[in-house]
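WARN retry 2 of 3 for item q-0093 after timeout on previous attempt; input resubmitted unchanged.
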Amino acid sequence: MTFPAHYRKLVIHQLTGDFRSSTCVVTEPWRDPGQGEIVIRNAYAGCNAIFDKNLCRNSIRYLDVKPPFDMGIESVGVVVATGADVTQLREGDAVATSRLGSGYREYQIASAERVVRVRAATPEILSLVPTGISAMVGLERIGEVRPGDTVAVSAAAGGLGHFVVQLAKLRGCHVIGITGSEEKIALLRELGVDRPINYRKESVRHVLEHEYPRGIDVGYDSVGGEIFDAFVDHVAFRGRIVVSGHTCDFDKPIEFVPQARAYRKLYWKSASIRGFQNQAFPEFFAESAERILDLYYRGRLRALVDTTPFHGLDRTADAVEHLLAGRNTGKVVVNLS
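OK item q-0093 returned
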């Protein structure tokens, strides 16, 4: 196979706080794989808009962004070259990767030990790895979900939320799904949500108070703000609130809200609030990846991909802005093929 002398990738070239003005496409010289490495031709890259935007203003607490800085976390593609001692993979195999700096580029070099082999390099895989894995680990390991639980999910039709909904239903839970449009309400019903809520038309707090007087056993929240407050105020005895983000105010100044301290709401219920970032729990990744893919391949799980097309690295900023505006249903991906 003939390889290019150079290929394209997206980098942060200046820290403006805005994705479009912070990034540009540059070329990278080809490098053959070393021992234990493979070269992957990326077919699709997953969009993680909030993380990407925070990178562009150097506000990820555990990273120090110094331009030029490679971007993109998840991708799926095909192995095009293998290094010495690589026996578990061969050219033509489809693989998924999840590593910062490996996604928004046409080719990447990866350790053969750190990729997930998949049946085909499709955009649906990007919805499953790592987003579906996050849903599974957050719900099972952090939320400690149990059959019969009442589970409330914010952004329930989003890339993460639609997996939380389905996994909770597979566990035999009663699921409350929160979204912001009637179109997404219809989708949530298709996914099995027992009580969909359009927060633009109904008060989440009112629904929880009047229809769920016992409270919610698990609240899986990635939105924050008033929805988070409603979850905390209506958590059940020994309930768990999983915080996996706060999209409503991630790019705004910290809001100081005058209300009773959380322990007054949680103590008498023996309830808890639990922060969750998937990368903090690497010990669960491999096992969860195997199970989430098995559910998908057996038709037990739908993997939703947003239908808006974004072709090429030059459209990455469009994809990020589309996701930040909340116009997506399911995972937003960039087509690199």
